[in-house]
């Protein structure tokens, strides 16, 4: 190269100057556990499936969803969505409507007849699943995916357990239930209905099963001793809802009192209203803050004309007169009787005071431990070393369909380990993606999309579904409200904001990498990452 | 049921890129094929706002002109840290002459290109606030007067940072610099008019004047693109925080630029032929204290002997800007969806 006058050196690029040597801290990409995933009892990768939904790829989103939970259309209706309670978007405006998007995907899959993944290749192992509720169906699905043969038995005449016989049709239409259950059965499952298992050990040996999963639920309504006249109608809520589900509702009269404050109490009261009760009154001994039912359920019930007597107990029920005693909360928050009474006209009393599990089928199974009426299980859901696993309402846990689905999956994995004589490695959970790690500036303001509700008049006389679904437009909008907490979603911010061009973009789905030759460790990328997926760590000196 | 148009891309309006946007809607900076006009290995401090602002602006100018630009640089940080002889970080034709003559040199380059008939080659001149509002002011004034075909970009870090943080006519009131010490009843830089160059430029009725910050990339790139689509004298004033001179954490550079805009202290707007035509509204308004208290150059306003009276005077400046440019959206019950 010819050098101009008065120039003695060749021109060089500043790339010879490795400014990375200035650094005392280096940025690193991390993945954190989003709070929704952390909170999901069914272990769904919510952020994972929302990611696909955001780009309108609903098929991929649904496929990602059913890797963990085969019943999204059901869960999108009956789940109490702890994911939304945990959602970080609350710090920006309102939680992402995860439940609504899940339902949209579930309904779309039914409409388009998408099928579940092909079962795994046959392992030759046989598993008996007792009880076809959410836990049993979830276990069945995951066992089939692992290639095990499944025989699914249930004492009722149809599959679904409490999803069919406990949850009323206005919350979960039977067509949806049938579609999602049918898809699981289509995985190649031997089903036997109207089959009561009296001795689990005997059936296991006789049927030559390698393992048993027990998901018998909690079918027995708790009774309390309430003095009642001979002519007074007293039923328990479980039986009542079961009969309604079988299209054989008992006659309760026009004034129905439901005793209890859980979801079942509200289901019973709302069902009674639909069957023609003019007065459906819930009597609960604590106050609104301490009730077991969800706030949504309460609001919907009140909207349908159900009334609630807080801080009251049923003292006695004679003829058409019910005597209530007023209660007061003591310093510890427990209700105590006040000695004040009031009368209420009533035709029937429905008891919704909780449920017990009938575990007589375990009487002869060795190694089973039963505490407080439920089966003690290990982390793998194993209840006895002979290969008996248990889950759902029959084990100590919160009694919801979603928890049961999670149990079913965990038990399936436990059974898989058991029959193969191996132990799967424990999954390392990432640290939580907390809200303080986010840079919320970057998220556009976007109000939560509301689901339509059935008009009130039709909610008092029919079992039509109360809550409608999202359409494609607002489902896409809602999915895009996801903040992608703690996991890179390739917004290019780090790539763009680096003053030293020290971030390399690796292409769609491949994320980025740092060029530590030139990264000075300023930390702008960490500060400006919307979702908190970059951290500074000290350099080793 | 509420219905929303699906023109909502999660973070599309604010972040550098977004997989949900089509390629032509994304920023220049989101592309792996961006020009990287200023390359790695430059000697700017950690978290330098000017290095970032220069790449944002020139990469956008490169795209608009199809890679046909010549850049003229005044003396200043940008020149010193990018081009210590014989190395350079510039990947574009680039000239440096003196501190004060960058507008005049750019005028000359533009004239030479015109004579040679190279109409598609565009000229960009750039300087810091010292080279613009103080030392280069006379040449710049002439460039405006002649309406020379140059886009002049001022990277404003509010002082002479390269030489040890001395005051310039763009240093804000109360700020501590090496030449405005924190002594006396009014510590730091004096309250006064300063030189508000965007308004001076507007008074010259040149075709295009705009302000921007490194905190809003979409806005900055659009303004460069608009300026490059026009001929004649154009002026772009970009706020570029300086961690060294302002005494802020290196990671805070963009955050501080954002606060400058959100407090109203740095109005972001554009003007055609001397008339303001568009204003970037404040999105999440904050009091000036939030902006001041994270910079050590204002530490004397807080701490043991706080000066709320001075903070209040600075707030007044922000409020006047808000009123002058209409920076705050009138309260509305409509839920707006940013596209």
Please give a structural write-up.
The complex is a heterodimer of chains A (541) and B (339). Chain A has 541 residues and is an alpha/beta fold. Chain A has 4 domains: 69 residues, Alpha-Beta Plaits, CATH 3.30.70.20; 119 residues, Orthogonal Bundle (Fumarate Reductase Iron-sulfur Protein, Chain B, domain 2); 152 residues, 3-Layer(bba) Sandwich (FAD/NAD(P)-binding domain), CATH 3.50.50; 133 residues, FAD/NAD(P)-binding domain, CATH 3.50.50. Chain A contains 18 helices and 23 strands. In chain A, strands 5-4-3-6-20-19 form a 6-stranded mixed β-sheet, with helices on one face. In chain A, β13 and β14 form a beta hairpin. The longest helix of chain A is centred in the last third of the chain and has 20 residues. Chain A starts with 11 loop residues before the first strand and ends with a strand. With 339 residues, chain B is of the alpha/beta class. Chain B has one domain: Rossmann fold. Chain B contains 11 helices and 9 strands. Chain B has an 8-stranded mixed β-sheet with strand order 3-1-4-5-7-6-8-9, with helices on both faces. Chain B starts with 48 loop residues before the first helix and ends in a 14-residue tail after the last helix. The N terminus and C terminus of chain B are likely disordered. Classes of the chains: A alpha/beta (541), B alpha/beta (339). Chains A and B meet through β1, α16, α17 and α18 of A and α1, β2 and α9 of B. β1 of chain A pairs parallel with β2 of chain B, so a sheet runs across the interface.
CATH architecture of chain B: 3-Layer(aba) Sandwich
Number of strands of chain B: 9
Q: Which strands sit side by side, in order, in the main sheet of chain A?
A: 5-4-3-6-20-19
Q: Give the DSSP E fraction of chain A (strand runs of 2 or more residues).
A: 15-25%
The pLDDT mean of chain B sits at 93
Q: Which CATH architecture of the largest domain in chain A would you pick?
A: 3-Layer(bba) Sandwich
What is the typical, i.e. mean, pLDDT of chain A? 93
The H-and-E topology of chain B, N to C, reads as HEHEEHEHHEHEHEHHEEHH
Global morphology of chain A = globular
Largest sheet of chain B: 8 strands, mixed
Gap from first CA to last CA of chain B: 21 Å
Ranges of chain B where pLDDT stays below 50 over 5 or more residues in a row are 1-6, 333-339
Which secondary-structure class do the elements of chain B indicate? alpha/beta
Overall 3D shape of chain B: globular
By CATH reckoning, the class of chain B would read Alpha Beta
Q: Give the percentage of residues in beta strands of chain B.
A: 5-15%
Number of spatially distinct domains of chain A: 4
Q: Give the class of chain A from helix and strand content and strand pairing.
A: alpha/beta
Major sheet attributes of chain A: 6 strands, mixed
The proportion of residues forming helix of chain A, as a percent range, comes to 25-40%
Instruction: Count helical runs of chain A.
Output: 18
């Amino acid at each position: 190269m010819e050098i101009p006058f008065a120039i003695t050196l060749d021109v060089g690029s500043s790339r010879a100057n490795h400014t990375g040597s200035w650094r005392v801290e280096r940025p690193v990409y991390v993945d954190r556990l989003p709070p929704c995933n952390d909170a999901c009892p069914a272990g769904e990768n919510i952020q994972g499936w929302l990611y696909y939904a955001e780009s309108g790829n609903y098929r991929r989103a649904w496929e990602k969803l059913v890797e963990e939970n085969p019943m999204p259309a059901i869960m999108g209706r009956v789940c109490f969505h702890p994911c939304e309670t945990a959602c970080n978007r609350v710090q920006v405006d309102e939680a992402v409507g995860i439940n609504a998007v899940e339902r949209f995907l579930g309904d779309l899959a039914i409409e388009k007849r998408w099928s579940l993944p092909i079962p795994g290749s046959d392992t030759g192992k046989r598993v008996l699943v007792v009880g076809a509720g959410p836990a049993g169906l979830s276990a069945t699905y995951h066992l089939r995916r692992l290639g095990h043969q499944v025989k699914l038995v249930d004492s009722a005449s149809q599959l679904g357990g409490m999803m069919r016989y406990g949850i009323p049709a206005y919350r979960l239409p039977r067509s949806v239930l049938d579609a999602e259950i049918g898809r699981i059965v289509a995985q190649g499952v031997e089903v036997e209905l109207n089959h009561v298992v009296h001795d689990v050990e005997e059936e296991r040996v006789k049927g030559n099963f390698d393992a048993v999963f027990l998901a018998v639920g909690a079918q027995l309504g708790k009774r309390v001793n309430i003095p009642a006249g001979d002519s007074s109608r007293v039923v328990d809520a479980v039986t009542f809802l079961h009969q309604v589900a079988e299209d054989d509702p008992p006659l309760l009269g026009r004034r129905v009192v439901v005793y209890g404050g859980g979801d079942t109490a509200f289901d019973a009261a709302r069902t009674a209203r639909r069957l023609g009760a003019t007065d459906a009154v819930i009597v609960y001994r604590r106050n609104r803050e301490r009730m077991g039912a969800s706030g949504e359920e309460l609001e919907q019930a009140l909207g349908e004309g159900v009334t609630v007597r807080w801080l009251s107990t049923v003292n006695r029920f004679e003829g058409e007169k019910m005597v209530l005693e007023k209660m007061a909360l003591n310093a510890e928050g427990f209700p105590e009787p006040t000695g004040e009474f009031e009368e209420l006209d009533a035709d029937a009393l429905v008891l919704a005071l909780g449920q017990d599990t009938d575990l007589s089928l375990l009487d002869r199974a060795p190694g089973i431990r039963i505490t407080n009426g439920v089966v003690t299980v290990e982390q793998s859901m194993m209840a006895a070393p002979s290969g008996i696993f248990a889950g759902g309402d029959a084990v100590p846990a919160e009694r919801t369909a979603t928890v049961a689905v999670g149990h079913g999956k965990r038990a399936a994995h436990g059974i898989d380990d058991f029959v193969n004589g191996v132990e799967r490695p424990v999954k390392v959970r990432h640290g939580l993606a907390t809200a303080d790690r986010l840079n919320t500036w970057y998220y556009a303001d976007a109000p939560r999309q509301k689901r339509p509700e059935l008009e009130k008049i039709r909610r008092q006389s029919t079992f039509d579904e109360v809550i409608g679904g999202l359409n494609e437009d607002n489902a896409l909008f809602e999915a895009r409200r996801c903040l992608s907490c703690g996991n890179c979603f390739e917004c290019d911010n780090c790539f763009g904001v680096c003053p030293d061009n020290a971030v390399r973009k690796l292409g769609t789905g491949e994320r980025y990498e740092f060029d530590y030759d030139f990264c000075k460790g300023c930390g702008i990328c960490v500060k400006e990452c919307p979702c908190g997926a970059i951290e500074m760590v000290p350099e080793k000196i | 049921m509420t219905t929303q148009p699906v023109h909502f891309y999660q973070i599309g309006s604010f972040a550098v890129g977004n997989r949900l946007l089509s390629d032509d809607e994304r920023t220049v900076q989101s592309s792996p094929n961006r020009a990287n006009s200023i390359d790695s290995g430059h000697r700017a401090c950690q978290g330098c706002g000017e290095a970032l602002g220069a790449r944002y602006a020139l990469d956008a100018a490169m795209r608009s002109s199809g890679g046909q630009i010549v850049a003229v640089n005044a003396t200043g940080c940008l020149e010193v840290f990018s081009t210590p002889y014989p190395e350079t970080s510039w990947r574009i034709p680039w000239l440096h002459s003196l501190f004060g003559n960058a507008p005049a040199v750019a005028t000359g380059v533009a004239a030479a290109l015109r004579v040679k008939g190279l109409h598609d080659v565009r000229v960009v001149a750039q300087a810091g606030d010292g080279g613009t509002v103080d030392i280069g002011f006379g040449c710049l004034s002439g460039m405006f007067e002649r309406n020379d075909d140059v886009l002049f970009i001022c990277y404003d870090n509010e002082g002479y940072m390269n030489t040890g943080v001395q005051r310039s006519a763009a240093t804000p009131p109360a700020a501590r610099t090496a030449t405005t010490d924190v002594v006396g009843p009014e510590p730091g830089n004096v309250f006064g008019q300063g030189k508000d160059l965007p308004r001076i430029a507007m008074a010259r009725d040149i075709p295009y004047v705009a302000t921007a910050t490194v905190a809003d990339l979409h806005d900055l790139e659009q303004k460069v693109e608009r300026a490059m689509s026009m001929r004649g004298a154009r002026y772009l004033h970009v706020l570029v925080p300086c961690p060294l001179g302002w005494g802020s954490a290196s990671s805070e550079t963009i955050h501080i630029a954002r606060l400058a805009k959100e407090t109203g202290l740095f109005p972001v707007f554009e003007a055609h032929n001397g008339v303001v035509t568009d204003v970037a509204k404040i999105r999440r308004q904050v009091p000036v204290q939030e902006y001041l208290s994270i910079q050590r150059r204002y530490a004397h306003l807080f701490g043991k002997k706080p000066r709320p009276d001075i903070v209040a005077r600075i707030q007044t400046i922000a409020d006047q800007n808000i009123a002058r440019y209409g920076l705050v959206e009138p309260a509305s019950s409509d839920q707006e969806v940013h596209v």
